[in-house]
Amino acid sequence: MSSNRHKWVFNTSMAALLSVAFCAPLQAAPVSGCTVPSPDCVEVGQFDFSVSLGIGSRSNPVMGESDIPLVVIPQISYYGKRFFLENLDLGVTLYEGRSNTFNLLASPGYDRVFFYRNDLQNFFVSGATGAVTVAAPTDKELYQAQEFEVRPRRTTYLAGPEWLFQYGNIVGQVDALYEVTGRHDGYEVRAAVAAPIIQTEHSLVVSGGLTWKSAEVVHYYYGVDGFYEPGAALSPFLKLGYTRALSDRWSINAFIHYERLGSAIADSPIISDKGVTTAFAGVVLRVF
Amino acid sequence: MWSCGFFSAIALALICDSAGAASGPVPDDITLELQPRVCTLSANDDMCETTVRAQWRSPRDESLCLVIVDRPDIKRCWESFTNGVYNVELSFNKDLTVELRDPELQQVLASETIAVIRQALQLRRKRRQPWNLLY
Questions:
Q1: Phi, psi torsion values for A18, nearest 5 degrees
Q2: Taking CB atoms and an 8 Å cut-off, how many pairs form between chains A and B?
Q3: What total number of domains does chain A contain?
Q4: Range of A193's domain?
């Protein structure tokens, strides 16, 4: 299927979904199960701003790039009746039920964080990471002996449908996204589930998932024109997160996240690590 | 047997008459008006804080007292008046009932309520994103 055909299918699907989004009434609160404000239920029309202060870092798999420190992590969110904004993600809700929610989502491509320290996603930390690889020693030596043209990686946005679900204590997320800013026309699928291990005043949650990136995405970030033309990549991850509320405004938060980069990324000559590890521990202040 | 029933009937009649004299007929032509009639609490408000104006009228002279249910600290009485007005600063978070009673506070002559309406909070589910680092 050609790139234009992909675009046509995507644009048609999005148009249909947007029509549904703005024509269908949003389900009332009782359907979503929200009756009182809580960490899971937010007030419509209210801005939330929190900031995490602590110490942490995200390893950088790109050769020659240093790890990314995490000290201050702001978090902004706003939920309208349909519209929502969460840090750099924005979208509209098509359907919200007790167990399933369907959104249309626009979200930035994450891999740029490894190439530009000032990328906004290095401040609004979210999302799984994207790169990784292990090159055989002989390959590494070969790559290090060569010079590659460094081309810019622009900020990109991907858009598409999102399915969020909850069955018992298990929460899941599946996003099917297409790059809409005209840089590489690639696809990305983000999927994950999370389940609590401890849920008292302490909360310990384990999450696992994967990110699938089409060849266009992988090439845009990790390919080398005329030298390394990668295919699609599937990168699984595992995360352990701990939180404890200290008061209405303060809480403790810590997590460790490891993503193993798909082979198409890991085999890139510009990649020096097999995976990306992100760890952070600190306090969270809910400002308003 | 006959005399016993006769005296019982008289005694019952006397008791009933005595009770009726103590309470007396409740007049239904005394009017009481309250302002405001309702108080709407927004999502951020906990209490209605407002001046309540109570005004009563009667076609004849009345001796009565104005009281507020569950607020024994508030009482205002009139003696032989055909109307009266009472303004009071109040703070309340549930329906407020104002009553006109006889001076002994035994009989309710008129009653009105200021309804407290809470603006319903509109809530929705926050995105739960296990793919997100900070979830």
A1: -65, -35
A2: 98
A3: 1
A4: 2-286
